[in-house]
Amino acid sequence: MKKISIFIALLGMTMSSCEEFLTIAPETALSSATFYKTETDFEQAVNATYAPLRSIANSRSWLLCEMRSDNTIYARNINFGATEQQEDLSDHALPEDQGITTNTHVLNQYRQDYLIIARANQILTQIDEIEFNQASKDNLKGQALFLRGYAYYELARYFGSVPLHLTPVTTREEAALPLTPESEIYAQLISDIQAAVNLLPVRSQQGVGRASKGAAQMLLADVFITQKRWAEAETLLKAIISSGEYSLIDNYEDVFSESVGNKNNAESLFEIQFLEGPEGLNSSFLYSFMPRPISLQELQPITGTSNPQPLDGEGNNIPTPDIIAAYEDGDLRKDASIAYVEISGSDREDKVYPYIKKYAKHHELHGNHGINWPIYRYAEVLLFLAEALNEQGKTEEAAGYLNQVRNRAGLANSTASGQTDMREAIFKERRVELAFENKRWFDITRADRVQEIIGDFGARALANPLDYYYPAGATFRSNAFTNITKYYALPAAEAEITPHF
Amino acid sequence: MKKNCYPILDSRRLITLLAAMLLTFVSYAQSTVSGVVRSEGDNETLPGVSVLVKGTTRGTVTDLDGRFQVEAAAGEVLSVSYIGYATREIPVQGGQTEYEIVLASSMSDLTEVVVVGYGSQLKKEITGAVQTVQGDDLLDIPVPLMAQKLQGQLAGVQINQTTGQPGRGMNVRIRGQLSVSAGSEPLYVVDGFPITGDISSLNPDEIQDITILKDAASTSLYGSRAANGVVLITTKRGKAGQSTVSLNVYRGLQNVPHYNRLEMMDAVEFAQFKKEYFEDAGRPVPAMFQNPSQYEGQTQDWYDALLQTAPISNYNLTINNNTEKMRTSVVAGYFDQEGVVLNTDYERFSLRINSDYKASDKLTVGFNLAPTYIRDNIPRTDGSRGTGILFNALHTWPNMPIYDDNGELTFFNRFPSETGNIFAYPNYVRSALEITNETKQTNLLSNAYVQYQPIEGLEIKSTINAEIRNSKYFYFNPSTATPGMNQAIPTVARSTRDNREIFSWLNENTVTYTKSINDHNFQLLGGFTNQYFRLDRTQVVGDTYADDRLPTVQGALNISRGGTISDVQEWALTSFLSRLTYNYKGKYLLTGSIRADGSSRFGSENRWGVFPSVSAGWVMSDEGFLSTSDKVSFMKLRGSYGVTGNNNIGNYTQYALVNNTVNHVFNNTVVPGAAVTSLQNPFLGWETTHQFDIGLDLGLFDDRIQFVYDFYTKNTTNLLYNVQIPQEAGFGSITDNIGEIKFWGHEFAITSRNTQGRLVWTTNANISFNRNRVEELAEGIDRVYGNVHITQVGQPFGQFYGLVKLGNYMNEEDLNSSPQVPGRSTVGSIKLQDINGDGIITRGGDNDDRTIIGNPFPDFTYGITNNFKYGKWDMNIITSGSHGNQLYMRHLFSTANLDGVFNMVAKATDRFRSPEDPGEGIFGTTVGGGNVTGIERDWPNSNFVWDASFFSIKNITLGYNAGTIANVVKSARFYASVQNVYIFTPYWGGPNPEVSQQNNGQGDGGNLSPGIDLTGYPVPRTFTVGANFTF
């Protein structure tokens, strides 16, 4: 009987500790119930909000902006059988049905932007509930608002009307929201960025590489210019100049980030940060920009790596004859931006291809570099200001800012006179100064010149496939340049799930 | 006595005792008849056999030498019976006083006791759907895994070998159970312990018997883990009264037969194809292909070069030592298999010690201890293009040299671009030889129990069980080899180390009370259990080595941050269980059971699940109207209904997790980042299955023919499902319990002793019809797409989905009069069906022309086993089959890529070339490049779907019983066995119609994507010879 009592005692003991025994929180991960409690938590949350920008810069923006424009093109390798989603973007042949597209790059851009928004929303709804140093809090809030504003600005420019999420989603029911009109998206993002301008410290007071007051002012100026609110843009841009935080770098070639060095330099207002090495924070876009198939012997001098590998498939973001011709004689920026490589494996008679040189910086290992991606730099502040002034009829004053940029490139002052000429001169200057920095497509869309410029470009390309890197006898697909639109259709994978589009 | 862990032995002793007590005292004077009773086959004498003079109370039992004496008159009949043997009736002849009586073992004796959940039951009185297999019947089959040995032998259980990788790849589904995202493997219970690890580490030669619990009445005592069915495994224990030593050995060779390999182009055919490719395109033919016949006899068979004839061997030494108080069984095993693919192998050392000690009449204690060590190496043989060595080797150009002029393996091959060679092909023979992909596991399974019987009929049992598993995984590809595609050598050397430590314990406490009042028999079980599991895991990934000879962690120039992981997984389960069994005269049977499970995996608002069941049976053959029938010897009707659960829902799925490795960098300095990466669900729970079963057990002609039929229906609801949500939310999905799948099926099993006497021929056959249909998914979602699958409400699970191929456009007229893919269709290209009738062919979107194009599930599966005994010879033939299932020949996207970038299936020689030469219609024109050929290749369509019905002769074994040898060996048996003798199938896409490669790198992930063939590791044919000795 003694054994039985021991047994019963054991039973009773175990039963009473049941609930405790059955509550097991994950040991190697935090849960949302325990996070967002300290300043450090919010710092980490803000850091993670920047993270999707890496994916956007490394593998999306240049597809959706630059290669969509007349600056670069998808160089077809006819031995490579697949038809690529990138080709659909470059050739303006996106499959589209009732405002929906199946293109995976469009989908990924959309999702990465909402990832930024969701992370910012987590911060912004909870940060005021926790007490900590006000200056730190303002800075963190400012960064979160900047990033949310930046993401909505991308969405508004790519898609127009999109769902507007401002608080974290906690249940299935809250996940899908109706499309908010473009104007309301703009109202929200302007309010976010304006708040960020007020909260963020100037660059010299801010952590290197983080969004600062100057970056927020520039982002807001960009928005205003897109909205043709010239006077408000002028005020912001002049504030940036008078802050004394930024200047032009003498030599254009020295403006761009290297794999390790020359990051966040005097000309940089905001750039997407990468790190060479095994941490998984590296970039690799240089490899996407190589014409193919390229042998390791041909690639190595460009990348300088110790372990080059050949690249197959098709070349993305290859400079078009159009951009090459757009540089004036003597423009120092041409050789700093574009170089040439001979590809022995090419099926073309002329085996020499141009490639983007701006970012071709040496690094240690194949496929892994730390080159930062420029978003805003001081030269664009000057060009924006020139544009804002010119649009307000202050053409004389505009010329001064334009010429600062031209002179640095080894060019004489612009000969443009009158508002219309000046508008065109600034438009052209932006093209070459900011070539391959994902500015061209939005310059075309905000000028409402999509059909004109891309239409002409398409006609030229279709008529001369040899010039656009096709081998003899091959040409574009029959549906190339048949779907030229200002906005992208919304992604199909999202449309399948949401009831709203 | 009935209700303990070793029911067969104890009830045998009990009945022997009873028979002795009842019968020996009541004999009166007749003439004395004596004799000996032997068992058929081994000719051993049988002690304890009941010998009864029919119609009298006179009788006796045989002594230790199998001898008996009984008073009987001429004309009377001796009824000789023994558990496990068919009863014989011998007429007493006048003048004959000495009888030699041979008993044949019975296929099924109704006094047989079957292990069930938390106890055992007389087979006759079972009201659920269960099936039992004896471990000894599986001994000869030369494969390392229990599941392999069971193929074809169980009704309602589909066992597929999805890859031939040694020691891996068994897929076991009881009654077709499926889930969208929770696991579907049955629960394995070894000696009462639901194990948490992989059952494949168990040495099958340790198994005494296996009981498969199929319906809810049988499984519901396992509650939230029972929905996939339960497999109870009892390991060998000492047999009363015997002390024996036995040795089982087999050795053999394995190879990959040629008859069913995927036939690829040889070098001449490939050169001819390339020549035609360029000619048809109007492009100059590269010099390499201008004269295809130059490659006559020069074919480099890359696939064959990876294969070898490989040895296999197995040794098991068993000792049974039994004294009055202590019974011990020790099984020591060594299994060693080299794979038929180069540099693959599997090796297992195992030991099991099972001991029972009877401390007093009331108290028994016991221990089991089973350590195993397993080492295997399988260098990335399976997987898609880019990751699987076999796949890559198959489509390597057959004119690329395996060896260079010096007889050394080449490093990689790449021809000039103008030949259309756009990829570098590493030498996959080198890949197989030089890549290490090794797992070393050390497992320890142990149990201890105390069993106490304070009063008659009451039994208290407490067990402690522990499972410890350590595994060390090591992967290394040196700079000279890669499993991937399109990499020049030297490549980047990479290593992965993954060390895991699993610890699980279980404490179970049960009380059983058995009572009979008149003819009313009751048994009540109550119990309380706790189980805990913890996994600690560390993974380190490094790359770029200075020296391939030193693949250490510190030797890596890079330690990959993304691949380096430490992880802890834990769960806890607390349960209360109870069962009441009642019968009246063993004729009317009723059982009810219930289990309540509290699990750490369930959301805080939904922590406890309750799983009841009820079942009833009626032994009709005990009723007056049937008991007199001489044809029907047994008939039982049974039915059950119950609820079970599936708790394979992940350990922390209910929590909103914050990932604190979403790092970022500013100015070359890493900063830590953290973000919420999942949504919480405090209501998350188990999947619930309601199952109804009705069955009939029938014995005819004195049980010479036994027949079992079951019909079941199941409804699985609350499916664990990652409900996709729009990613505008910042999340891709939330895990929730939604939806419903209905399953139903019929199972038939028959055992027939076709002939008796000198030739004993028995046949076991079974056939199962399993069906399922998705009744509901999430709100607002009626379908889930995979890459080539759809799971849709109103249809069976995981159907193949795509466009329907009608043929090729035969000529201009055909092209112009048929719906086309705008801008892409040409004469000779694939002609697809315009399902929605809008005049154009569209894939996806609102004008989708896709539809269901095939079904990976069979109409029925079946198995037939024939066993012959003739004198000292025996032969066993095991077959299994599956009918109506289809496979998606996924590899065709590479192996039939019409752009000529890879080697191709030989069938592509006969493709469309012109309206005059249209080929056999399977493959279209090569002209037009990816824009044209990409439709056929990249748009999933019915050209990929092929019938994969098969009938497989799994095993043929021929044995000879040599009996006693030189007083040393008490009995010896020798045999020869062939495994995977032949597969009859119309399927041509590869050697294994049982293949199903999910999670294969092509995005065909998880349960929703069954039936994918990417040419995995072939299942070898194995020839062995073996011997069993008892000392």
Structure characteristics:
heterodimer, A: 501 residues, mainly alpha, Serine Threonine Protein Phosphatase 5, Tetratricopeptide repeat, 20 helices, 12 strands, 8% strand, globular, B: 1031 residues, mainly beta, Immunoglobulin-like, Ferric Hydroxamate Uptake Protein, Chain A, domain 1, 22-stranded antiparallel β-barrel, 11 helices
Task: Characterise the protein shown here.
The complex is a heterodimer of chains A (501) and B (1031). Chain A has 501 residues and is mostly helical. Chain A has 20 helices and twelve strands. Among the domains of chain A are: 200 residues, Serine Threonine Protein Phosphatase 5, Tetratricopeptide repeat (Alpha Horseshoe); 87 residues, no CATH class. The N and C termini of chain A lie far apart (72 Å). About 1% of the residues of chain A have low confidence. Chain B is mainly beta and 1031 residues long. Among the domains of chain B are: 97 residues, Sandwich (Immunoglobulin-like), CATH 2.60.40; 123 residues, Ferric Hydroxamate Uptake Protein, Chain A, domain 1. Chain B is built from eleven helices and 53 strands. Chain B is globular. Classes of the chains: A mainly alpha (501), B mainly beta (1031).
Give the secondary structure arrangement, pairings included:
The complex is a heterodimer of chains A (501) and B (1031).
Chain A: H1 2-16, H2 18-21, E1 30-31, H3 39-59, H4 61-66, E2 72-75, H5 85-90, E3 96-97, E4 100-101, H6 104-126, H7 134-159, E5 162-163, E6 179-180, H8 182-199, H9 213-226, H10 230-243, E7 268-272, H11 285-288, H12 296-303, E8 315-319, H13 321-326, H14 332-337, E9 338-342, E10 352-356, E11 373-377, H15 378-391, H16 395-408, H17 419-433, H18 440-446, H19 450-463, E12 490-491, H20 492-495
Parallel strand pairs in A: 4-12
Antiparallel strand pairs in A: 2-8, 3-4, 5-6, 7-11, 9-10
Chain B: H1 7-24, E1 32-39, E2 50-53, E3 59-61, E4 67-71, E5 77-81, E6 88-91, E7 98-103, E8 113-116, E9 119-122, E10 130-134, H2 146-150, E11 157-161, E12 170-174, E13 187-190, E14 193-194, E15 207-213, H3 216-219, E16 230-235, E17 244-255, H4 267-281, H5 302-305, E18 310-322, E19 326-338, E20 345-358, E21 363-377, H6 389-394, E22 412-413, E23 425-426, H7 428-434, E24 436-452, E25 458-477, E26 494-517, E27 520-545, E28 556-559, E29 565-584, E30 588-599, E31 608-619, H8 624-627, E32 632-646, E33 657-659, E34 664-666, E35 669-671, E36 675-676, E37 687-700, E38 705-724, E39 733-755, E40 759-776, E41 783-785, E42 789-792, E43 799-802, E44 805-808, H9 812-816, E45 830-832, E46 851-854, E47 860-870, E48 873-883, E49 886-888, H10 892-895, H11 930-938, E50 945-947, E51 950-965, E52 969-984, E53 1021-1030
Parallel strand pairs in B: 1-7, 13-16
Antiparallel strand pairs in B: 1-4, 2-3, 2-5, 5-6, 8-9, 10-15, 11-12, 13-14, 15-16, 17-18, 17-53, 18-19, 19-20, 20-21, 21-24, 22-23, 24-25, 25-26, 26-27, 27-28, 27-29, 29-30, 30-31, 31-32, 32-37, 33-36, 34-35, 37-38, 38-39, 39-40, 40-47, 41-42, 42-43, 43-46, 44-45, 47-48, 48-51, 49-50, 51-52, 52-53
